[in-house]
Amino acid sequence: MTFRLSFHKLAATVLASAALSGPLMAQDNNQNDTHNLYLQQCAACHGPDRLGGMGPALLPENLGRLKKSEAEKVIREGRPATQMLGYENTLNDQQIANLTDYIYQPPSHELTWGEREIRDSRIVNHPHGSLPDEPVFEVDDLMNLFLVVEIGDHHVTLLDGDKMEPIHRFPSRFALHGGPKYGPEGRYVYFGSRDGWITKYDIYNLEVVAEVRAGINMRNIAVSADGQYVMAANYLPHTLVLFDADNLEMLDFIPVENDAGDSSRVSAVYTAPPRDSFIAALKDIPEAWEITVEDEQARVRRMKSDTLLDDFFFDPGYDHLIGAARDGKHGIVMSLDSGETVAELPLPGMPHLGSGITWEYEGRRVMATPHFRAGAISIIDMDTWEVIKTLKTDGPGFFMRSHENSRYAWADVFFGPNADKVHIIDKQTLEIVKTLQPEPGKVAAHVEFDRHGEKLLLSIWDDDGAIIVYDADTLEEEKRIPMNKPSGKYNVWNKINYEEGTSH
Ligand code: DHE
C-alpha cells in the first residue's frame, strides 16, 4: 500500500490563483526562479523534492526548530564540520533571502513516503552476522559503555564507563533525537533522526551495519524486548512502520487512522517488555495503541482515551500508561489491561512525562516528573495516584535522572535565566539538597548514571561544551571531557535492564 499525503493543498491553490493577477504573476516568476536556483545549488544534497539526501530534509516540518535567521546564516556561511559550504561568494543577498523563504514554504505538490520509498531507501553495509563477534577495542566491562549524542556537529561518542574515557567518535545522521535503543545483548544500537532515518550500529565493530528511512519527520523508535523488531513512529506521514531488527527490512506499514478514517501523528512508541508489545499514543486522535507482532505483521489493539495524549510514561510493571494531556494541564492514568482511564492527575504546567523516573519511598513507589511550563517537579504516589509533593525549582526543566543505587535524583532547569543550574533531590526526604551551576551562562542538562550508580555524566549543552563526570555520592566533580553540544547520554546496562532511574 502506498500512503500519499497532500502538503497544504490550500497553499498550492493560493499559488495557482496568484498567477492570475499582475503583481502576483511577478511573485510567481520569482518563485520559479528560486525553485530553479534551489535545483541548481541545493538539490544535489537536499533532494529535488527537499526530502533530503546527503543533507537533511528542507521542509517546513523538518525546519520547525531552526530559526529562519539561522537557516539564512547556514546558507551564507555554511555549517562547520559538514559538507554544507557557505554560498556568500556564489549567491547575492537577495538570492540567499529567497532561498531561505523557499525552504520554509510547503511544497506545491504531493510528497509520498510509502512502502516503496522506505524499501528503496534501505542501505545494508554489513548483512547481519557478517562481522566478527569480538569487540575491536578493549574495556573491562562492555555493559558499562555509554553513547553520547553530540548534536552540535551530529556525532556520537562511545565512552568507557569505568575509565570515563572516549573510545571512538563517529558521524551520525543529521539531528538525532530521542534515546538510541540498544538490542538486548548491548552490541547493536539503533539511532533515530528527526528526518526519519534509522541507523543500526554495531558497537563491537564500530560500524554502521544498516540504515533505512522510515518517514519524512519521525518521532522516535523502539526495539522489542527480544531484539527482533524495530518500530518507528512518525509525525509525517501519519504512520507506524515495523522492521526486522537484523537488516532493517520493512515488515509492516501501518497507516495511523481511526475508524472514521481520520489520520493522526504518533506522539511516540515504546516497547513494553513484560507485555511483549509496543505501546504508542496518538497525538491527534484520543487513542493509545498496543501493538503485538504475529507472523511478522503488526496487530493493533486500540484503547480509547477521553483526551489527546502527548508525552507518556509507564509504571515499572507496564500495567499503566501515565500520559500528559495535550492541553498541558493534566495527566491521565490508563490501565493497559482494560484500556480504561483509572485516574486523573492534577499536573498543570505541561509535565514532561517522557522524563519521568520512579523509586521506592517509605515502602511505596513514587514517580517524579518535571514540567515544561512551570518551575516545579511533581512527585506522585503510584498506588493512589496522588501528588504527594510539588518541589519548587529555579525554572521549567526537561530531564530527570537517578539510579536504584543512588540516594539522589538530578533535575535540570532547562528554560529561563537559570538554565545553567541543576537541582539535586534527596529521594528519601523529597527535598532539593543542592543546586549546582557548573558553567555559568551555559545550559547544564541531562544526566545519566553509570551501571553501578556510582558516577554520573552531566552535559554542558553548548558547541563549546563538555560532559562532566560527578561522583554520585559525594556530588563532587571529577573531570570534564570536551564535547560539541552533548545532549543525551545512554548507558548500556541501564538501558537494557530498564533501570528505574533512567528513561526507556
Ligand atoms: Fe525530545 C526524547 C519529544 C524537544 C532532546 N523527546 C524525546 C522523546 C520524545 C520527545 C517523545 C522520547 C523518545 C525516545 O527516547 O524514544 N522533544 C519531544 C518534543 O515533543 C519536543 C518538546 C518538541 C519537538 O521538537 O519535538 C522535544 N527534545 C527536544 C529538544 O528541544 C531537545 C532538548 C534537543 C533536541 O535534540 O531536539 C530534545 N528528547 C531529547 C533527548 C531525548 C528526547 C536528549 C532522549 C532523552 C533520554 O534520556 O532518553
TrEMBL record:
<keyword id="KW-0479">Metal-binding</keyword>
<dbReference type="InterPro" id="IPR051200">
    <property type="entry name" value="Host-pathogen_enzymatic-act"/>
</dbReference>
<dbReference type="InterPro" id="IPR009056">
    <property type="entry name" value="Cyt_c-like_dom"/>
</dbReference>
<dbReference type="InterPro" id="IPR036909">
    <property type="entry name" value="Cyt_c-like_dom_sf"/>
</dbReference>
<keyword id="KW-0732">Signal</keyword>
<dbReference type="Pfam" id="PF02239">
    <property type="entry name" value="Cytochrom_D1"/>
</dbReference>
<dbReference type="InterPro" id="IPR011048">
    <property type="entry name" value="Haem_d1_sf"/>
</dbReference>
<dbReference type="GO" id="GO:0009055">
    <property type="term" value="F:electron transfer activity"/>
</dbReference>
<dbReference type="GO" id="GO:0046872">
    <property type="term" value="F:metal ion binding"/>
</dbReference>
<feature type="signal peptide">
    <location>
        <begin position="1"/>
        <end position="26"/>
    </location>
</feature>
<protein>
    <submittedName>
        <fullName>Cytochrome c, mono-and diheme variants</fullName>
    </submittedName>
</protein>
<keyword id="KW-0349">Heme</keyword>
<dbReference type="Pfam" id="PF13442">
    <property type="entry name" value="Cytochrome_CBB3"/>
</dbReference>
<keyword id="KW-0408">Iron</keyword>
<dbReference type="InterPro" id="IPR003143">
    <property type="entry name" value="Cyt_cd1_C_sf"/>
</dbReference>
<dbReference type="GO" id="GO:0020037">
    <property type="term" value="F:heme binding"/>
</dbReference>
<feature type="domain" description="Cytochrome c">
    <location>
        <begin position="17"/>
        <end position="107"/>
    </location>
</feature>
